[in-house]
Automatic annotation (TrEMBL):
NCBIfam families: arg_catab_astD (TIGR03240), PRK09457.1 (NF006992). This is N-succinylglutamate 5-semialdehyde dehydrogenase. GO terms for molecular function: succinylglutamate-semialdehyde dehydrogenase activity. InterPro entries: Ald_DH/histidinol_DH, Ald_DH_C, Ald_DH_CS_CYS, Ald_DH_CS_GLU, Ald_DH_N, Aldehyde_DH_dom, SuccinylGlu_semiald_DH_AstD. Belongs to the aldehyde dehydrogenase family. Residues 3-437 form the Aldehyde dehydrogenase domain. The active site is at E226.
């Protein structure tokens, strides 16, 4: 293991963070601290834990600009967008408290009792695209439920994790309840091999599948895996072509295409209407402002690294070699990519999630063909339909195999009061967001009586 690792700002090439990765021994120490803190923390009244979480939300609001700067400098996200992420982090606490009370209640009747218990030590692996908001969405419900946590952020975006832990400390979180281990693959491997009770992960299907295999034969370790998607967006003859193109543009290119709910496949009808959508979309691509995170009037920044940009260009080249038609090239400059648009109709393409501003156009003759194309994926996270006809929506919605199905909204829209996740390679059927309470605690059921009463006996002499 190297002595240090660095975070490189993809917009400038500057080193914006440098530190030592946690060794295997340090990871074991962090897990041991979490284990030692569990008994006291788990037996505290829920309101005690909730009050600390609410104080954490206040600290996040106080440090929101520092959080936004850390996110932008680490992964290149525009500052205006990073500020919305910081806001979502603070807002997550109240939503999580409400979710805990609704989804994991204590219910006592004259004869039965239902309660919910924490698992123990939870390992949280954070992604780079929302380095604050997404691990925050695992950590808060875990702590509210009474678990303790060991948090390993992405090595690409380490800065915000330091601030998050600082905010929890300032909020009064007891020592050992939340433990940070910075590092890359070797640090993560040590955490996988440690004495943990659960693994909460948001990231790629490749990594999530590896984790699933790693814990094969260990049903006692809870896995909650959110693994992205190859998401379709269907446009079916709405009156407002400009609005449809706006929704497609936002779905495919927000955050430089680095959201797990971004549209990857744009499914359009054959004929004049589909041609018109492409024409308007190309006009928007030609006008989009791309630049450094600290420039005010930009829509998107770079992807997370030069390597990620090179991988996107290689994927584009692969599709072109198969016979796809480029409508707007990615045009790479370092880690910056101009939004790409490519027609892959009739082409066999890899069923992969490409984290880049790149939309694949598929032309179809009718709605049922569009639905068939939308479902032609191993994933199932998000999908969308743009149309004016409610009957079309009613026909399509139950036939679209995705955990999030939006109507006349970007595919990237997800409500904090709803679950987040999907079938197939998008996860292991443990949706997050409002349903995170479900995987952060297990139900304890029982029959009860105030006094001991012997049961009726038969066959006794």
């Amino acid at each position: 293991m190297s002595d240090t690792f660095k975070s490189i700002c993809p917009a400038t090439g500057d080193v914006v963070w440098e530190g030592a990765p946690a060794s295997a021994a340090q990871v074991q120490t962090a897990v041991a601290k979490a284990r030692a803190a569990f008994a006291d923390w788990s037996l505290r009244p829920f309101q005690f834990r909730a009050d600390i979480a609410l104080a954490y939300a206040e600290r996040v609001r106080e440090h929101s600009e520092a959080i936004a700067l850390a996110i932008s400098r680490d992964m290149g996200k525009p500052l205006w967008e990073a500020r919305t992420e910081a806001g979502a982090m603070a807002g997550k606490v109240a939503v999580s408290i409400k979710s805990y009370n609704e989804r994991t209640p204590t219910v006592i009747t004259d004869a039965t009792r239902l309660a919910h218990r924490p698992h123990g030590v939870m390992a949280v692996f954070g992604p780079f695209n929302f380095p604050g908001h997404l691990p925050n969405g695992h950590i808060i419900p875990s702590l509210l439920a009474g678990n303790t946590v060991v948090f390993k952020p992405s090595e690409l975006t380490p800065q915000v994790a330091d601030i998050m832990v600082q905010c929890w400390t300032e909020a009064g979180l007891p020592d050992g309840v939340l433990n940070l281990v910075q590092g890359a693959r070797e640090t993560g491997a040590a955490l996988l091999d440690a004495d943990i009770d659960g693994l909460l992960f948001t990231g790629s299907a490749k990594t999530g599948t590896f984790f699933h295999k790693h814990f094969a034969g260990r049903p006692e370790v809870l896995l909650a895996l959110e693994m992205g998607g190859n998401n379709p967006l269907i446009i079916q003859d709405p009156v407002d072509v400009d609005a449809a193109a706006d929704l497609a543009f936002m779905s495919g290119y927000i955050t430089a295409g680095q959201r797990c709910t971004c549209a990857r496949r744009l499914i359009l009808p054959e004929g004049a209407f589909g041609d018109a959508v492409i024409e308007v979309l190309l006009a928007k691509i030609s006008k989009v402002n791309i630049g450094r995170w600290d420039i005010d009037d930009i829509f998107m920044g770079p992807v997370v690294s030069v390597g990620a940009a090179e991988a996107a260009s290689a994927f584009e080249a692969e599709l072109l070699s198969k016979g796809a038609k480029s409508l707007s090239a990615l045009d790479r400059d370092g880690a910056f990519l101009r939004p790409g648009l490519i027609d892959v109709t009739g082409i066999s393409v890899p069923d992969e999630e490409l984290f880049a501003p790149f939309l694949q156009v598929i032309r179809v003759p009718n709605l049922d063909a569009a639905i068939t194309q939308a479902n032609a994926t191993r994933f199932g996270l998000a999908s969308g339909l743009i149309c004016d006809d409610g009957a079309v929506w009613d026909h399509a919605c139950p036939r679209l195999r995705a955990g999030i199905v939006n109507w006349n909204k970007p595919t990237t829209g997800a409500a904090s009061t709803l679950p987040f996740g999907g079938p197939g390679l998008s996860g292991n059927h443990r949706p997050a967001a409002y349903y995170a309470a479900d995987y952060c605690a297990w139900p304890q059921a029982g029959q009860i009586a105030d006094v001991a009463v012997g049961p009726p006996m038969r066959g006794m002499t």
